[in-house]
Specification:
heterodimer; A: mainly alpha; Cytochrome Bc1 Complex, Chain D, domain 2; two-stranded antiparallel ribbon; B: alpha+beta; Sulfite Oxidase, Chain A, domain 2; Immunoglobulin-like; 7 helices
């Protein structure tokens, strides 16, 4: 995978001001389909800033948009939340659509409930989600559905704590913050496998 | 003016106020023609003058079928390979946002040398590219009763010509670092839709699209700018694109964990299943059509997310024999391809069906083959079974949900 000679041109670029040499590293390395081939078509001299269209993004511009959270906790904001605070918030802002305690309403359950005989258990946070950080990320960006983006970071931590607690993933006293949330192990995580379909005669 | 028969009259304020007799007569006749249910003889009255926007004939009733979360394309009503823009399927996760193109921006940051904010005008200055390709939601299979149309079964697929700038061009411009292996694409809708995409797809054929079928992308399709990933499940082609972040691992967002993943054998969950497997569907004759004895042209669509369609076979005897159907040019990479097969129906009850082979050698499976491969708990994602239609002796056509089970 590593291309040792790539490092040299990138270094050169810094002082030469001429971008051509760095372009080798910009070649697509993998084709994306049997008849791909309309890939990157620019001549080699088009490197970083060659067109000069667009404006350099200021750190504060990026920060205003950059709300994503990764499984290792990167992107989690300051603040914290408790299960108890989350329970109160949930009844007020979420239960109308997800049922009391998240056990199922017009927009689906969020917690593992006792399986109905003959029916597959619903795929919810406690039995299907591979990373706890995704709960925080999703609730912050998309919930409540009718008022997206209205929750404070503390409220999102609290709601995440309540949902993880209701799925029996943490105890009542756990305080969620940027340190404790990524440390939670989810039961479903080991089940996840990458796509194994690859075309050809075999059905997968 | 109005006595020149080749020149339709112009209803300027002046001519109307001028009270020219001829104009008045034309006006009344025209109004009459529009008022009565159908023009009785279009050769005996003046037609409608040219307009600013074209219109669909009022005799045509084709429409999408909306639910709370999606709206399906009427595949059975289409002729040819392109989907009219206003009939392109919709799937979104909290409605269609209104985005002002004047204030729109796309920010690219993360593992790049030059984090950059692009306006729409900036994006349009870059070298552009167009390509005709299908877009299909990976949750595009409904079944269960025999009164279902192709629209009901798999109406979450459509095809357009997409125009924009190659993502590879932007990757060069911002200087994507060697370490970057994934990028996050984020929409500016109320769901702030996010998906993690391998960087190689960005280099290979991703388009930052601002146009669809020759005009700006429709709001339902991502106005003013969307990501377009040819051949990949529709959700990854993030609409209303506002941000791309380059990173070295996937983010595991809700749409690539809780949703858009499928249970396979052994309790495993398949993730990042991007490619759309090859599929075909007969679009005529299908429910609710009724056919007559004699020659029937069986028509349909076939496509593959892995390349070109190489062959479509049609069976008119419930799968006992298969004949190679004709493919309509052009047969494009990762594109809906029209197929046809001429068939003489003698009034005997039968099942008709189609199956596609793509250039990787993949043959469209039956439902049973899919369930055998993935186990009984697999959900509704990436289901592309051979679809059969029952022809009743009286010519009525019904979907056959149990075929190939």
């Amino acid at each position: 995978m590593t291309n040792p000679w790539l490092l040299i041109p990138i270094f050169l670029m810094n002082w030469s001001g001429w971008k051509a040499v760095s372009i080798h590293s910009f070649r697509p390395r993998t084709s994306a389909g049997a008849s791909a081939g309309k890939a990157d078509t620019l001549p080699e001299r088009f490197g970083p800033g060659a067109f000069g269209f667009g404006k350099l993004a200021k750190p504060e511009q990026v920060a205003a948009l950059d709300i994503d959270v990764r499984p290792d906790g990167t992107g989690l904001p300051a603040g914290s939340g408790t299960v108890a605070a989350g329970a109160v918030l949930f009844s007020a802002k979420c239960a109308a659509c997800h049922g009391s305690g998240g056990t199922g309403g017009p927009n689906g359950a969020l917690v593992v409930t006792t399986a109905v005989p003959g029916k597959r258990p619903a795929k919810v946070i406690g039995n299907y989600w591979p990373y706890a950080t995704t709960v925080f990320d999703y609730v912050r960006r998309a919930m409540p559905f009718n008022e997206p983006g209205s929750l404070t970071n503390g409220e999102v931590y609290a709601l995440t704590a309540f949902l993880l607690y209701s799925n029996k993933l943490i105890d009542e006293k756990t305080i969620l913050n940027a340190k404790t949330l990524p440390a939670i192990r989810m039961p479903a995580q080991p089940s996840y496998v990458p796509d194994d379909r690859k075309g050809g005669p075999e059905i997968r | 003016m109005s006595n020149n028969p080749t020149q339709p009259p112009k209803f300027t304020r002046r001519s109307l106020l001028g009270g020219a007799m001829a104009v008045t007569i034309v006006q009344t006749t025209l109004a009459k023609g529009l008022q009565v249910g159908r023009p009785n003889d279009p050769t005996k009255q003046m037609g409608v003058p040219p307009g600013k926007l074209g219109s669909r004939s009022r005799f045509e009733t084709l429409a999408k079928s909306p639910s709370d979360i999606s709206s399906r394309s009427p595949l059975q009503d289409f002729q040819g390979m392109l989907t009219p823009s206003d009939l392109h399927f919709e799937r979104h996760h909290n409605g269609v946002p209104t985005i002002d193109p004047a204030t729109y921006s796309l920010t690219i940051h993360g593992l790049v040398d030059r984090p950059t904010v692009f306006s729409l005008a900036d994006l349009k200055r870059f070298p552009s590219v167009s390509r005709i390709a299908f877009l299909e939601c990976s949750g595009n299979f409904r079944t269960g009763k025999d009164t279902m149309t192709p629209q009901d079964i798999c109406g979450l697929t459509s095809q357009s010509e997409w125009t924009g700038v190659r993502l590879s061009t932007l990757f060069r411009e911002v200087g994507v670092r060697e370490k970057a292996s994934w990028f996050l694409a984020e929409g500016g809708d109320a769901a702030l839709m996010t998906r993690s995409i391998p960087v190689r797809k960005g280099w290979a054929d991703a388009i930052i699209a601002y146009a669809q079928n020759g005009e700006a992308i429709r709001p339902e399709q991502g106005y003013p700018v969307r990501l377009f990933l040819p051949g990949w499940e529709g959700n990854t082609s993030v609409k209303w694109l506002r941000r791309i972040e380059l990173g070295d691992a996937p983010w595991h967002t809700r749409e690539e964990t809780s949703k858009y993943t499928e249970t396979i054998k052994g309790g495993k969950v398949r993730q990042f299943s991007f490619d759309i497997d090859a599929r075909s569907i007969i679009t005529f004759p299908t429910y609710p059509a009724q056919i007559e004895r004699g020659w029937v042209e069986i028509r349909g669509l076939a496509w593959s997310g892995r390349g070109k369609v190489t062959r479509v076979e049609v069976s008119t005897d419930a799968g006992k024999h298969w004949q190679v159907a004709e493919l309509q040019d052009p047969v494009l990479d990762k594109a809906h391809t029209v197929f046809r097969h001429l068939w003489r129906w003698e009034g005997v009850e039968t099942l008709i069906m189609s199956r596609v082979t793509d250039e990787t050698g993949y043959v469209q499976p039956t439902l049973r083959q899919l369930l055998d491969a993935r186990g009984p708990d697999t959900g509704g994602y990436h289901m592309n079974p051979v679809t059969a239609w029952l022809i009743k002796p009286d010519g009525r056509v019904l979907y056959q949900p149990d075929y190939g089970r």
